[in-house]
Recover the amino acids of this structure.
């Protein structure tokens, strides 16, 4: 019965397709005329029909609490997707290393796995590591949508009030875009994207990328001297190599009576990564590795006016992910890469040693229906269904434990449905009311003291939201939004990964009251925005880190309130400046009866290990037609600031001995030169100009000064 949830979207799509084929000639004529009117619109507007019903400009002016980043402005620059997201107000990205390292996102105090990621509206968790934002190439992106507070129903997932949606390039004119960059620490990145129209109704779109880095940047770590006493020394990371690559292709049909778009796509992704240390960088590893291989295939279908005033889009994907985690060395390493001990048992991480191969299978289906009742009322329905299975095999652990625990299957089914009503009350006032339903069921197991225990969990939750937009005049816009949001635990939080993260099948869903109030003022050369936000979150899930293995747990309740401000000014046609800043106060609201503490010493205290004050800014100079027509020179200087914050509770321990993540002030500068209207470009950027010692997480050092040189060729046919 449960499997009907993820079969339903496909059945509905097939039924509506047959309905469109059976329309009367008069109806077909009307539908064809409507499609022709749509297809006469600019390509940038039609491509949004393929992946979203909203264009970037209208989305920014909608009643949603959203920041839209135009990636096209950065195609000539050696920027990364994480750089662009980290520049947004209210957003903070924390990494634990160089290229390919884990990245944690925070949006208005909502962080970690509370923030959901999407590729063209599809949950990225089910598409494999090749769609993670820490490696996704900027030149493959059209725009980045950062949602705060209220997550729209078409993003079919249980986000707790923060979501990032990557809208990829789907340009409907023939082009080829290729780029290659080289940088510090033997870092290489290459990306290519192409679209080719095959007659009036067929197209081929393909792309791929390749990334490699030694990540051998210098850090300061304790290394034993000749007497065996630890002494701080500058050493290079010796086991942090990263490599990945992806190939993808899509073939499709456009402008047919039965479909505005129908396509079939497939992709392959490969990754291998050395693991340098544990989560708190207290213990170096010298032989632990991870690798992954992912296959995806699916279909996309879009039909406007499938019935009078009814638009339909459907996406389906099936994927398989093979992950390998290897921890078999008896060696124990120091930070200078030397072996100081040869164990007679145990691996570097696991007591059993590990040669673990996971096989994961995913099914994802999303159905979106939009019905325009009249000029003032629009109704939308979205259903996203996902099915996940994972099974492992570890012959070494099997010998140690006496049985193959990992051979048991972990399964998870999750369904998210949403219904929204958009109403135009007056020319200047718009409202969107939404209702969401979440359901999931998970079965798996835990390993406690070498004992296998089957485990399972089923949960359902509801959510509701309201968003209002009031346009006072052509220059001043106000937005108000509220959502009661829920997030169900995912497979990692419930069952762990059996290597670095332990299982916790008793973990509970999170829920949150999210409120946003925004004012935005716009003039031709000047824009400014001010946003206040409030989050009251219960059953917060957080990762409790430890040197050997970590576990996701619930922290009962917290309140987050803050303000974010942003402004930009165009001094001259060549010179512009933008900046933003965020202050957020995240405090504990769990009393002693619920936390198990003997007193309320942590009540109303700021949560530790959370940035609370940060800012970004950039000064840019652009000179067009500098030496020749259509030649452009661009220079930029940017800053990123994060105020220091405590690792543990502020009222514990002596003030002069407390562990802190220090203040970060990182500068970057670059220059690019584009020829013949961006048909060729060369750029150079230096990150961390001051070579500051930078930490996003306690004791985990990030790269120092680094340079990148990027070349790009664009052929528009």
């Amino acid at each position: 019965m449960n499997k009907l949830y993820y079969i339903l979207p496909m059945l509905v799509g097939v039924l509506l397709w047959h309905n469109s084929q059976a329309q009367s000639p008069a109806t077909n004529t009307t539908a064809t005329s409507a499609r022709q009117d749509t297809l006469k619109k600019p390509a940038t507007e039609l491509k949004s029909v393929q992946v979203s019903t909203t264009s970037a400009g209208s989305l920014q002016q909608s009643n949603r609490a959203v920041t839209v980043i135009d990636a096209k402005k950065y195609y000539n620059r050696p920027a990364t997707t994480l750089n662009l997201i980290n520049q947004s107000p209210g957003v903070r990205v924390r990494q634990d290393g160089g290229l390919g390292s884990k990245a944690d996102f925070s949006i208005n105090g909502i962080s970690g796995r509370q923030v959901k990621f999407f590729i063209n509206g599809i949950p990225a968790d089910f598409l494999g590591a090749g769609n993670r934002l820490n490696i996704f190439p900027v030149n493959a992106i059209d725009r980045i949508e950062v949602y705060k507070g209220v997550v729209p129903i078409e993003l079919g997932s249980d986000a707790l009030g923060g979501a990032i949606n990557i809208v990829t390039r789907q340009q409907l004119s023939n082009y080829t875009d290729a780029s290659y960059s080289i940088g510090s620490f033997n870092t290489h990145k290459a990306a290519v994207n192409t679209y080719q129209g095959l007659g009036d109704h067929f197209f081929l779109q393909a792309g791929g990328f390749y990334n490699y880095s030694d990540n051998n940047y210098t850090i300061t770590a304790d290394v034993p001297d000749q007497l065996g006493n630890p002494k701080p020394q500058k050493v290079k990371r010796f086991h942090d190599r990263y490599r990945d690559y992806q190939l993808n292709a899509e073939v499709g049909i456009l402008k047919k009576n039965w479909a505005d778009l129908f396509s079939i796509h497939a992709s392959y992704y490969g990754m291998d990564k050395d693991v340098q240390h544990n989560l708190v960088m207290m213990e170096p590893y010298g032989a632990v590795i991870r690798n992954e291989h992912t296959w995806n295939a699916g279909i996309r279908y879009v039909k406007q006016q499938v019935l009078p005033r009814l638009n339909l889009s459907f996406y389906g994907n099936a994927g398989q992910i093979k992950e390998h985690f290897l921890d078999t060395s008896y060696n124990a390493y120091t930070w200078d890469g030397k072996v100081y001990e040869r164990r007679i048992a145990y691996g570097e991480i696991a007591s059993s040693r590990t040669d673990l191969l996971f096989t994961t299978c995913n099914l994802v289906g999303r159905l979106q229906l939009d019905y325009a009742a009249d000029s003032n009322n629009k109704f939308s329905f979205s259903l996203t269904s996902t099915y996940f299975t994972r099974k492992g095999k570890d012959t070494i652990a099997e010998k140690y434990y006496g049985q193959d625990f990992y051979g048991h299957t972990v399964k998870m089914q999750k369904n998210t449905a949403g219904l929204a009503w958009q109403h135009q009350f007056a020319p200047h006032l718009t409202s969107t009311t939404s209702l969401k339903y979440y359901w999931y069921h998970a079965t798996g197991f835990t390993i406690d003291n070498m004992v296998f225990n089957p485990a399972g969990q089923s949960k359902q939750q509801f959510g509701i939201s309201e968003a209002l937009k009031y346009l006072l005049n052509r220059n001043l816009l106000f937005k108000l939004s509220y959502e009661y949001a829920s997030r169900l635990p995912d497979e990692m939080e419930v069952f762990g990964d059996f290597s670095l993260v332990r299982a916790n099948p008793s973990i509970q869903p999170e829920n949150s009251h999210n409120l946003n109030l925004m004012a935005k003022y716009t003039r031709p050369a000047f824009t400014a925005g001010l946003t206040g936000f409030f989050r009251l979150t219960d059953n917060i899930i957080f990762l409790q880190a430890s040197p050997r293995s970590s576990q996701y747990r619930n922290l009962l309740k917290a309140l987050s309130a803050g303000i974010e401000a942003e402004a930009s000014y165009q001094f001259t046609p060549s010179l512009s400046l933008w900046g933003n800043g965020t202050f957020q106060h995240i405090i504990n609201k769990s009393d002693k009866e619920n936390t198990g503490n003997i007193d309320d010493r942590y009540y109303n205290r700021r949560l530790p290990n959370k940035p609370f004050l940060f800012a970004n800014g950039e000064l840019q100079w652009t000179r067009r037609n500098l030496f020749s027509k259509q030649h452009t020179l661009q220079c930029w200087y940017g800053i990123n600031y994060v105020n220091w914050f405590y690792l543990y509770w502020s009222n514990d321990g002596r003030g002069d001995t407390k562990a802190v993540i220090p203040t970060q002030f990182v500068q970057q500068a670059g220059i690019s030169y584009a020829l013949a209207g961006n048909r060729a470009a060369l750029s150079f950027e230096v990150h961390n100009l001051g070579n500051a010692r930078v930490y996003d997480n306690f004791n985990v050092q990030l790269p120092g000064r680094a340079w990148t040189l990027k070349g790009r060729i664009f052929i528009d046919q």
User: Anything to note?
Assistant: The longest strand covers residues 354-374. Residues 4-716 form a domain with the Maltoporin; Chain A fold (CATH 2.40.170.20). Residues 492 and 577 are 42 Å apart (CA to CA). The chain has one domain: 4-716.
